[in-house]
# Entry
Amino acid sequence: MAREWVNAVVAYLDVAATTRVDPRVAEVVLHWMTEDFGNAGSRTHEYGARAKKAVQEARMFLASTVGAKTEEVIFTSGATESNNIALLGMAPYGEKTGRKHIVTSAIEHKAVIEPLLHLQEARGFEIDFLEPGTSGRISREAVLEKVRPDTLLVSLMHVNNETGVIQPVAELAQELRQTSTFLHVDAAQGYGKVPQDLKAPIDLISISGHKVGAPKGVGALVTRRRGWNKAPLEPIMFGGGQERKLRPGTLPVALIMGLYEAAKIFQENRSRWEHDAMQTRERLLAALGKTRFQINGDADHSVPHILNVTFDGLNAEALIVRIKDQVAVATGSACTSASYTPSHVLTAMGLPEEVAANGLRFSWFPSQVADFDPEDLAETIAHMQPDAS
Ligand SMILES: Cc1ncc(COP(=O)(O)O)c(C=O)c1O
# Structure
């Protein structure tokens, strides 16, 4: 189907919202939908056996990318579901043991904030939402200061989806392993991109496929053991008992194989990807030198492919409309971009309302923006800006 709705020259700089499925991944998905289409739970024939074997292979690979054991990975529909299983699934243990305190940050994605607010409002948990300051980075010390004997869980994201700032999850994992507090990390934006962090002893890791070139609707939850002890998770849904009784439902074999292929491609090309993403960033920043802007968040602790900026005197929504024929970008998280409220992330960073309400997020995969000319874009923006005087 031709893309009639989009002008071919519109550069896609919104990979933090979602990525294009890699054509090699699409080929694999198609194969597992139309040729090897068996149910991984069917025990009576070869169709089922092939599907089950393939899923196990995918599971083994995914586990290896985060230094976990094969059986510690369960497949889900994406990071939202993984976050819900992790957070709501730990709650009964907290209730039974009287540990109803959770530490998190105010810059988490809604897929963490909302389940935690549910625990606070409906089940009497006490949640500390830490604010990071203008760097956008939550300090390890600030988290540890809040941890107390009744702290069940710390939930901290890996890479912030609006600013690209990397959080100190690896250091925290080492510290929290010495305590009885569990660590959950929403790694939707960091998985594949900053892989070394996720090899730290994090108890629960949420992964999303569609941020690394896999289709939407697939992800994983890593539930790492502490020695022989499994994380005391209870299911939040009930059904056929698939995925270690933590996530029922027929496995979407084709999507899982897509996630596997995408993760493999990302791993094989990561160094190059990082180098090229950084070059694109430098190109973009050099061009934006024509304009007056501020970078939101600590650029020294950021992934190379996400940049959040506010242009002096410009309304982000008006700007997006003006540049939409040149570039597809976003104001913060896609889930809230339908509303005009200032970004909760930029607000929690303590930025003035004017700045927080007008942050613009550029995010890119370098191979897909080779033709993008940031000079043209910068020219348009500079013309829109009122005189500084
Ligand atoms: C940090 C973060 N967490 C969770 C999600 C939700 O992931 P999914 O779409 O796989 O449910 C996203 C996606 O926007 C995200 O950026």
